[in-house]
Each structure stands twice: as structure tokens, then as C-alpha cells.
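Table 4 source record.
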Amino acid sequence: MDAASIFSLGNSCILIGWILLIFLPNWKYTQASILNGLIVLFSVVYACLILKDIGDFRADSFSTLANVKTLFQNDNAVAAGWFHYLAFDLFVGAYIVRKSISLGISRWLYTLALPFTFMFGPMGYLIFFIIKSLKTKSITS
């Protein structure tokens, strides 16, 4: 399967996790399906994409912006990078739901952060952090 097909398949599959977080956050299988299913699957695909072209990797590949741009001229590297984003953003989304439920934060409030986490990763976490800090009146819990 080529990188473009893997990219498209990843975009479709990751939606399952986000649908579970938004519509079934309290279902007993939501967290396990995401953490032990989708994220593990995405990790395997990521590893395969990285290992496929590991011969092109240099120790200084991430040392400068120019080197990173060069690294991501390969379609497999771009697809791997995208899977990296998708997996970690979903991981953060799962954390937001889990932590919110444990702190008793309203589903309507923490769900506001999820689309931003899906689309803009750290911005969604920032929104959750603000909600959590306001609701718990603490920045440490």
C-alpha cells in the first residue's frame, strides 16, 4: 500500500476514536478501544513507515528546520508524521475525557476541547487546561 492510501485510511480510521470520545465517553470500552486498539494500530503503522526508510535517517535530521523539511520530502515520512499527529492527538483527547470524568467536569464543558484537540492538538489541551483550572480552581490537579 502506498503512502497516500495509508494516509487516507488513517484519516478515516481515526474518526472512530473521536466519535467514541464525543458520543460515548462513558462506555466501558471507549478508553480501551482507543488506548489498546487504535493508538496501538497507529503505532504499528507509524513504526512500519519509519522502518521502511530508516536508511535515509541521519542523527541530525531534527537539528535544524532545513533538515526537518528535507526529511519530510519523502511521502512515507510525511505519512508517518501524520500518523504521529493523529495518534498523539487522540491520546490527548482520551486523557482529557478520562481526567474530566475523574474530576467531575461536565461532559458539555470538556467536549468543547475535543474538536480543537482533534484539529489543533495543543490548542485543545490548552482549552481543557483552562476549563480544568477554572472548575477545580487549581493548576496542579
